[in-house]
Amino acid sequence: MAKTNYNYEKRARELEKQRKKEEKLKKKQAKNNSETEEDKQIPLDTSI
Fold it and tell me: Whole-model pTM above 0.70?
């Protein structure tokens, strides 16, 4: 029977965790960017 390569499995898990973490960070940054763009679009001069 073949011996299990635990180092390969561990590395695969670590890469998956890193990928998920990066995706989560990108979503968070995209959300923050869209909120700041909306803030920029609101006119500050309301004396009209």
Answer: no
18's tokens: 């890193």
Per-residue pLDDT of the chain (48 residues; tens, 9 = 90+): 888 899 999 999 999 999 999 999 999 999 998 877 666 665 666 666
How many CA atoms lie less than 13 Å away from 31 in the CB half-sphere? 6
- Measured CA to CA, the distance from residue 30 to residue 36 in angstroms comes to 10
Return the residue matching tokens 């803030």: 39
Query: In the structure encoding, which two tokens stand for residue 29, read together?
Result: 């940054």
Q: How far apart are CA 6 and CA 41, in angstroms?
A: 53
For the record, the structure tokens of 9 come out as 């499995």
